[in-house]
Amino acid sequence: MRRLSKKRALTLVKELDAFAKVPESYVESSASGGTVSLLAFTVMAVLAFLEFFVYRDTWMKYEYEVDKDFISKLKINVDITVAMRCKYIGADVLDVAETMVVSEGLTYEPVNFELTPQQRLWQMTLLHIQDRLRVEHALQDVLFKAAIKGSPPEPPPNEDDPSSHSACRIHGHLYVNKVAGNFHITVGKSIPHPRGHAHLSALVSDDSYNFSHRIDHLSFGEAIPGIINPLDGIEKVTPVSSHMFQYFVTIVPTKLNTYKLSADTHQFSVTEQERVINHAIGSHGIAGIFMKYDISSLVIKVTEQHMPLWKFLVRLCGIIGGIFSTTGMLHGALGFLVDVICCRFQMGSYKPLKEAPENQQTESEPCVPTVNYPEQ
């Protein structure tokens, strides 16, 4: 019984076979068919190889949602060099809620404003990348993929005498409320005041003012090595002592999820404005560097995605089946056209023969004598 059931099952499976089986004796091989088959297999191999690289590649997916986090603090990472001595300048933050954050987390380091050839080369590289980012927006995805976890490397300490340095490097981080505010560097150290805040600028002469500066790094949120921000490498030099530099920054919270890291950072766009302070001509204000920032209410979720395996297999089957069908149809169509053209020329080279009478024998047909055999 088991053998009979197995035979019935095999018979049922054979009856369900829908693929046509053509005997080899019915297939006619030709040189053109072999050439087309060779070309088809070559194209299939090349496309399958390229499709494998597409399968290995990843892309960034952007999603937007409302920011519901109002409690956490915003981290500001600063690394700015100002062409003034450290004792003459001060940096702090004042937000719209009249909350002042003094520069307790910042370090004032005496340095030289001029860069070494290696540092100048690095700065020019940053500026070149900034120019390409403004033109090729897809380059930002490459930077997201190259980002790594960890803190950015610190530059080597200065070995020169600090008393000979005429500039000040302000670097470190501050934690502020997630509201609009103003981070500024101006003359004099900041002091608390009941109505806001003030700077001790009366002790500094106007001849000592020089707000030429270079922004080596400015970011918000978690500092991620490999990410280049819009103001990294920017350098402003002014020959005028009383000069105001303003940067209007719009911050967008960003949740970055790649195969290398997962971090909460912030992207931002910036608009620059500068002017000379001259009260005689009506240009009022305070000389210094002012960064007025505002935080967007949206959150961008950037996720690195990969092509699923099933999709890769479907695309691979589509490539192989499509090339087989297309080359077969093209080969058949070209063969039909060649046969039609060749047969037309062959039919034109022959003439029809005249019909001979039934009782008249043509010269090409030989006479065959009739032999009668006796009956036995």
Strand content: 25-35%
C-alpha geometry: elongated
Task: Round the mean pLDDT to the nearest integer and report it.
Answer: 80
Number of strands: 15
Q: Count up the domains.
A: 2
Taking the alpha carbons of the first and last residues, their distance comes to: 67 Å
Helix run count? 5
- Low-pLDDT stretches are none
Q: Can you give the helix content as a percent range?
A: 25-40%
Q: SSE order, as H and E? A: HHEEEEEHHEEEEEEEEEEH
Oligomer: single chain
The structural class is: alpha+beta
The value of Rg in angstroms is 41 Å
Query: How would you sum up the major sheet?
Result: 13 strands, mixed
Task: Give a verbal description of the structure.
With 376 residues, the protein is α+β, with helices and mostly antiparallel strands. The protein folds into two domains: 28-57 and 307-322, no CATH class; 62-306, no CATH class. Helix content is 29%, strand content 31%. The protein contains five helices and 15 strands. The strands form two sheets. Strands 1, 2, 3, 4, 5, 6, 7, 10, 11, 12, 13, 14 and 15 form a 13-stranded mixed sheet that branches. The longest helix has 40 residues, at 309-348. The chain is elongated. The mean pLDDT is 80.
Outline of the structure:
This protein has helices spanning 2-16, 31-56, 117-135, 139-146, 309-348, and strands at residues 58-66, 74-82, 89-95, 100-102, 106-111, 167-176, 181-187, 190-193, 196-199, 213-221, 234-236, 243-257, 262-276, 288-295, 298-306. The chain has 2 domains: 28-57 and 307-322, no CATH class; 62-306, no CATH class. The chain is α+β, with helices and mostly antiparallel strands.
